[in-house]
Specification:
homodimer; 370 residues; alpha/beta; Spore Coat Polysaccharide Biosynthesis Protein SpsA, Chain A; 4-stranded mixed beta sheet; GMPP_N (chains A, B); mannose-1-phosphate guanylyltransferase (GTP) activity (chains A, B); Mannose-1-phosphate guanylyltransferase (chains A, B)
């Protein structure tokens, strides 16, 4: 194994609940804390393990909500508690990553940071590491580097990155400029992108010098930047709580794609490294089924603590966290998610609609099951 | 309303678990104790209420297992406890109905009895009563009378009765001889039967003088008859328990169709009255869905104590006895049965296969969920 990268911090934003994975994912039990793949570890823990060879234990930071802090610390027993940054409430990815950038830049001027979602699944560790090392090399040249995933199908569920001119950077042989970002396409457009190998999936991974990302934020969202800097100045002092309580609620909620990445791309400051590893954001139960079934949907695939499932000519994904016996008879392409207080039955075609059901439950004030 | 019929006892065999309705029906909670139709009463209670105008409260007998006795008595608060005949263990319908016939013939020589399953659903009460009164009139003439249901579709799930020559019996204008019984047909044969109006469904309702049914049993199954007579002789005496414990376990298990009805038909002693009321044996969840949906399967039909079901473009039957929220998203023709310790997911085409699942659980020794 190669050594950790000098002066490089990984930042794991662990915030999203993953409401398309309801009723498994909950406000109290978000997606990243679940062992969704049956690997014996949570998605967060797998993200930690994946980053460890690049950083060592003392250079991984986690940004998470106060409500999830204790569970995150339990899930990552080796984490340096100074590197767990608790958000007062969720304020989108610019605030989360910006907070980490500002604190880490104060502590370690010139540091390079990379943000990696807590709830994605990646296979082919060596390729992942090779790609991140290239992104860090590009970051050291002053670029904000993103990792674009080589598409494996004409997906309509992701945004795309159009690769532009090649960049000549030592230790980053595959780096190129980002020509532009593209929103989620329709199927015809997605097929064009898939045929044209210069379009990559935007997986939301950004690697940059902390000061570079903060400068970009300052240029595009000056109030947000100022608020984050004020919090970072106070973070490692006795006045942290007072400043956070006062400033955090005023911060604008905006995705880092809009506040940093797209403006940087327009200025020619965004580099992309194609990621030729297997990547999945486990966006809904249909993609989870594909993931754990290695693309095949045959028989009954079971996930969760309860494996007591009888299969009589069924094709189904059964995720159960109860202690019930479950009989699946003759159903085709059915997804069942069985928890103590909520049951979901849907199909892979309709798995995206789970989000609307969660909204509907929210509108009805059914918070106890959300 | 007309008066109860003189010297007529209704016998309700309440024995079958109804394993095609698992996991709702259980050894401890058989089909007949469930309010399957959402009417606010169990199938047993509805059977009782249906027979009451023909008998009065003191002339309905129930034959049930010892395990279910207390629940039956709770469900039928007006039942005469002398008329609840507890079986030591289940020994099929000849033993159950034969026991009732033997006890009632001892108590009331010459009595007419009619057996009516505890777990069928009948609509059109006046037509039902009219039909039973005709069957009793035929029984008084020495016939064993059955009620054959006018088919509403070419069903393959029932046996058929071929109607023969008309019988001339006062007060039984629709009576005819049974030419023969036919086992469950294939679909092509069922279609022939359906087109030929002389074929009726065998609903297992038999009305006869008790002594006539016992004589038929004596001719065909002399040992079974002798055992039942020995038990009946002892029933209303202090030696009941001793005799039951000794004799009941020796009784042959045989359906009354084979021990009584078919042999009687061959001898020209079986009459049939066509029943032109709506009848359903609620054989599985598919027929339950048809029944409660009045034949239409649209949207989500809910049954059971839990009605907390969210429907997003689903077509489903949801039977729930838990307190969970259930989300049905985009599924078509799906049956979900949700109980505290077991969950069934199937389709109406596969609802008959539930019985095999129950067998499979039995073979695995999973009695706690059966």
């Amino acid at each position: 194994m190669s050594e950790p990268i000098d002066d490089f911090y990984a930042v794991i934003p662990a915030g999203g609940i993953g409401s398309r994975l309801w009723p498994l994912s909950r406000a109290e039990s978000p997606k990243f804390l679940h062992d969704l793949t049956g690997a014996g570890a949570s998605l967060l823990r797998m993200t930690w393990d994946r980053l460890l060879p690049l950083t060592g234990t003392d250079r991984i930071a986690v940004v998470t909500g106060r409500a999830h802090g204790p569970k995150v610390e339990e899930d990552l027993p080796d984490v340096d508690l100074n590197n767990v940054f608790m958000e007062m409430d969720p304020r989108d990815s610019s605030a989360a990553i910006g907070l980490a950038a500002a604190i880490l830049e104060r502590r370690h001027p010139g540091v390079v940071i990379g943000s990696f979602a807590a709830d994605h699944v990646i296979k082919r560790q060596r390729v992942f590491e090779f790609t991140v090392r290239q992104a860090v090399a590009a970051a050291r040249e002053g670029y904000i580097a993103t990792i674009g995933i080589q598409p494996s199908e004409p997906a309509v569920g992701f945004g795309y990155i159009k690769t532009g001119d090649e960049l000549i950077i030592d230790d980053a042989p595959m780096a190129a400029l980002v020509e532009r970002f593209v929103e989620k396409p329709d199927l015809a457009t997605a097929r064009e992108y898939f045929a044209d190998r210069s379009y990559l999936w935007n997986a939301g991974m950004f690697i940059s010098r902390a000061d570079v990302i903060l400068d970009e934020l300052k240029a595009n969202e000056p109030e947000l930047h100022a608020g984050l800097m004020e919090i970072a100045d106070a973070w490692d002092t006795a006045s942290r709580d007072e400043v956070v309580e006062r400033v955090w609620p005023t911060l604008k909620k905006i995705a880092i794609d809009y506040a940093v990445a797209e403006p940087a791309a327009e200025k020619g400051r965004l580099a992309v490294i194609p990621g030729q590893f297997d990547w999945d954001d486990v966006g809904d139960f249909a993609s989870l089924w594909t993931l754990v079934g290695d693309g095949r949907r045959e028989g009954v695939t079971t996930l969760g603590s309860n494996q007591d499932v009888l299969d009589d000519n069924a094709t189904a994904l059964v995720v159960s966290e109860t202690d019930r016996v479950i009989a699946m008879i003759g159903v085709e392409n059915i997804i069942v998610v069985d928890t103590p207080d909520a049951l979901l039955v849907t199909t892979s075609e309709h798995a995206q609609r789970v989000k609307q059901t969660v909204s509907s439950l929210q509108n009805k004030g059914r918070d106890s099951v959300l």
